[in-house]
Amino acid sequence: MVSNKVNSNFGISLMALIAVVVLVLVVNGLAGMMHKPAAPDMSADAVAERIGPVARLNTGEPIAAAAPVAAAPSAARAGKDIYATTCFACHDTGAAGAPKKGDAAAWGKYTAKGIDDMLKNAISGVGAMPPRGTCGNCSDAELRDTIQYIIDSL
To answer: How far is CA 103 from CA 33, 69, 109, 112, 123, in A?
Structure first.
């Protein structure tokens, strides 16, 4: 008997819940119909007026682009300054097998070939040293001055 009473109470509760849900949906639908906003005007003129400020086409004189500003020519940097900012990390410590500044024996095989060959190696890279060392914005003349600074320290 207990199970029939539980089933009966469950059925009544379920029917009451369904009735409440249906009632809420009906009331919401009726309220939505009464407060429905008017559809916006979708005529071509109304749309053009709404997007006009954004989509305005310049049909007048072309807008002149600003003339590019030329970079000021930079003064050539001294070899000593370039060495102190880019080369020292490897050539003061001997990192990755780089010959140390001031070590004539380590530089001997390079200096024997002359500064032109050393410059060619500096430009293209040699061993673990990348092209232009770590001075990608150095001119060939600046690299030559830096090499001369290293040679003068031997």
So the answer is: 92, 45, 12, 14, 22
Nearest Cα residue to 118 out of 84, 103, 127: 127
What per-residue string of b and e applies to 46-67 under the rule 16 or more CB within 10 Å gives b? Answer: eeeeeeeeeeeeeeeeeeeeee
pLDDT tens per residue across span 57-116: 666 677 677 777 665 667 889 999 999 999 999 999 999 999 999 999 999 999 999 999
Return the structure tokens found at 123: 């430009």
Fold that domain 79-152 belongs to in CATH: Cytochrome Bc1 Complex; Chain D, domain 2 (1.10.760)
Q: Please, what's the b/e burial string for 80-90 (b: 16 or more CB within 10 A of its CB; e: otherwise)?
A: eebbeebbeeb
Answer whether 0.90 is exceeded by the pTM: no
So where are the chain's domains? 1-35, 79-152
